[in-house]
Automatic annotation (TrEMBL):
PROSITE patterns: RIESKE (PS51296), TAT (PS51318)
Keywords assigned: 2Fe-2S, Disulfide bond, Iron, Iron-sulfur, Metal-binding
Any single Pfam family the record assigns to this protein: Rieske
Record-annotated Rieske domain positions: 49-143
Name under which the protein is recorded: Cytochrome B6
Amino acid sequence: MPQNELPSSQRRTFLTVLLAGLGTALAAMAAWPLLRYLSPRDRGDADAKVTLARDKVPVGGAKFIDFRGRPAVVLQPKPGEFVALTAVCTHLGCIVKWVNAKQEFLCPCHGGRFSSSGQVLGGPPPKPLESFNVKLDGDKLVIG
């Protein structure tokens, strides 16, 4: 047997260890997104407030913002009346879209529909969108 050749049992052991390591790495890469999906997300600072200029929210329109680390939306259904809601669908967590022509939210994933106040109008969502307090402070809105 030449000096640089290993016995077949050592080769087999080396290949087994190599394949086991590769399989473990692939399993971890596949499991990570699943674990992130199933684990609760950080809600951010629960007492955090967001300040927004009042003129950034058009009458009958929506302004999407980041609130406590999650997407949210501020609406002005009527002049001087403001509503703040989470932009995360209560069905599977997709981000809802504002349909200006219908004055409602639509979830692009499964067709869930929500009113401008966050109530479920149709589709699979089990509960309304979470709402947040909105206070007027001069020409600014304070959300939270």
